[in-house]
Amino acid sequence: MKRYRVKIEPEECKGCGRCVLACPRGILEQGTHLNEMGYAYVCVTKEGCIGCGSCFYQCPEPGAVTVYEITETED
Amino acid sequence: MTEEHVKFGKSKVFFDTFERRPGPIKKNMHYCPGCGHGILHKLIAEAIEDQGIQDRTVIIAPVGCAVFSYYYYNCGGISVPHGRAPAVGTGLARALPDDFVISYQGDGDLAAIGLNEFLQAANRGESMSVFFVNNSTYGMTGGQMAPTTLPGQKTVTSPCGRQIENDGYPIKVCEMVNTLAAPVYIERVALTSTAKIMQARKAIRKAVANLKERKGFSLVEILSPCPVNLKMNAKTINAFIDEQMSRYFPLGCFRDEPESKVKHYAIRPVHDPESVKKVLFPPKLNIGVASDFKNQSKIFENERRIKIAGFGGQGILSLGIMLATMGKLRNFNVTWLPSYGPEQRGGSANCSVILSRNLIGSPVIDDNCNLLIAMTQVALDKFMHELKPNGVLVYDSSTMRVPTHIADSHPVFGIKALDIALGLGSLKCANSVIMGALSAILIDRYLEGADKMDFDRAFEEAIIDCFNKKPEVIKLNICAFYEGKKAVRF
Amino acid sequence: MEYLNRLLLKGNEAVVYGALLAGCDAFYGYPITPASEVAHSSAALFPKLNRTFLQAESEISAINMVIGASAAGKRVMTGSSGLGISLKQEAVSYLAAFELPAVIVDIMRGGPGLGNISPEQSDYFQVVKGGGHGAYRCLVFTPESVQEMCDAGYHAFSLCEKYRMPGYILADGVIGQMMESVTLPEPTTYVYDPEWKITNKTNGEANYLTTIYLENDDLERRNHLLQEKYRTVQENEQSAEEFFTEDAELVLVAYGISARIARTAVSRLRQQGWKVGMLRPKMVFPFPERALKKIARSGKTRAFLCIELSPGQMIEDVKLAINCELPVHLAYRLGGNIPSVAEISEKAVAIINAKGGDRA
Q1: Which of B171, C60, C84, C142 has its CA 20 to 30 A from that of A57?
Q2: Phi and psi dihedrals of B79, rounded to 5?
Q3: Which CATH class name applies to C240-354?
Q4: What pTM value is reported for the model?
């Protein structure tokens, strides 16, 4: 079974909120901490990423959002 | 154990870090939060990566917010004058038939200052793809009105909202381009909901694939968020685009042609010297003389200055060219200077021909003329004063009379050139009739020894040289020449 | 196959022959009298060698197409007359800022405004002083004959490439329209392929060309480099012809058609015993300062006389070159009129007489 994980780079996010609006599972939230650029970056606050890529394609920054596919392998 | 791999992440078409960007920030783009440029940059990068054409792609940056796109793409980049991206792209695409040209333009760049360059490139069907960012405002300069600003929309240069009566209507670029025959692909998309971004992704991939397939000119217009200048947030800007912009600029595919319309991309310029010579150098005809040949007659010791004047259509300029060609074929330095411009479109025409063994200074004859050939009364009146004492006057006696005082002070020869030419069936050969007369005059009065024989041959060679691809013209003119020779009365 | 290399050509045609023989890959232009034959002969000849001729929608587009072809590492040319050159100036500033070589032919006509189509030399300021924005220079060749038009078309590229800068071939309506016999140079075997072209990579990164430097210090550094280059050009590439200058009391200074008239005037005056000569700049950027300075300090020359088809544009450079150490006079005509040899000769004699000079 495939699982997904979304990672948001706090130092690359400008906090525009597009990903927050677009996430079908509502797992992203506008943060309250400011990064070095002075933006309140978005945080992943819940589990449940379905790997749809909405956040990635909505994000205007090349490297702020990465979505990983996690494959369980047997030892 | 678990294994992770990236499903959606940064394209390799982007630099890992943006070292070309000045200042400390090297991971981010320079765009404002929520800006559509970044979204579009990613879609284009992904499409280039997937097509495997990164090493052969050139991205033209416009003037506007995207002026720095070369900070980010590891593709050939050039940041061009405002609005001229499709013209620069034309130069690139024609020069680089193996590469792929992307023109990235905003609404000021493409639809205002550069509308002509854009439409003309589209109309020629240049091999390029244009990504047109329509965000209804001028972003880089601080939110002024754009050609795409909606009616009533407030900007800093339309503070009361765009007034149609004053500012005209927003320009519908896709619809306009769709009236042209050449483009192969035209689509308008929007960067709002994920579903619409996925449609945009598809369109951009198509336009990039069209490049690779050499299909021709593709245009994707992208309705794009500019939340900072429009003073909106992520939610309200999406609503503005979906509910207001998309109503005026409807989304959809306007054209998608299956066949390629690019014809010229396979052409390769020819540079090998032999082929170049074949095109540019005249073939060696059996004419001319050895390089050390010199006409011996005394009259050639000094510069010879000839003025030919009449009206347009009498072959005035070509008569001059024949004389200059004769000179060239006999190793003289020659100059031929026409009256040019409106005069050549009817009205008077004249030219100056100078033959010299030495370097010729001024090609202009306004004095010291040795030979005046006048084909109209007006020409005679205008240029007679330039003729030297003892200078020769040759005129067309079918239409003109020469005052006796001129005949008293100059050798004067009247030839019924137009009459004779008419008799031969073409007014156009009147100039060769004159040449024939000139031959008779020169042989009788001025040429010496072998030069007497040489003039006729030089003339025939000049005619061959001037008209080497038109044998019937050569024949007619040679015939006229010998008629002219017979017509002189001494 | 045997070929002749001698042709009777118009100046406007000869410059195209020269460019093609130099390996010029593309011509982009818009027709304008009296430069139209540049486009006509390009249209006839470029396609025969599978090279590009494109009649652009405007001079603005044409020069921007030149930017594209040059950025792709190709030899490329455009041509126009004063009005069209005005339109090209923005992109010429870009070419200079990009450091892109390209050849621009200007066949000058009467101005300002629509003026007329007869010859003038009043584009000197806009071409030589950099008619576009910013501090830049272009190489400027000033041919006086059809042969030199061909030679300029042939040689301009390599000098533009040596210094990575645009160059003008600045001629007038007479030089463009007149025919003379021309000896064609051999087609080049040199393969132009600059490493900076934007399809190449440098250290694994794709090349790029830009002209925008938002940081003041970056732009200042960049501009210092450009100015340094222009100083090198000024130092190394001056080119002029001297005609009877050795013992001349009066030296005429002229280029293009004015030089041809001056040449005849000098020849006639010499026959009458007047000690006159001519300095003819073959390029006006760089301006032949050294040659002028040398003449000014020869002790023999007492004055200069500039001949121009403008109210006096080049004369400023002459005065600067000699630091106003000698009087510099001007003889000129406007509106398409050309001064006669007699006019020039009279003026020259008057200047010599006023200085107490005499025939030899």
Answers
A1: B171
A2: -105, 110
A3: alpha beta
A4: 0.96
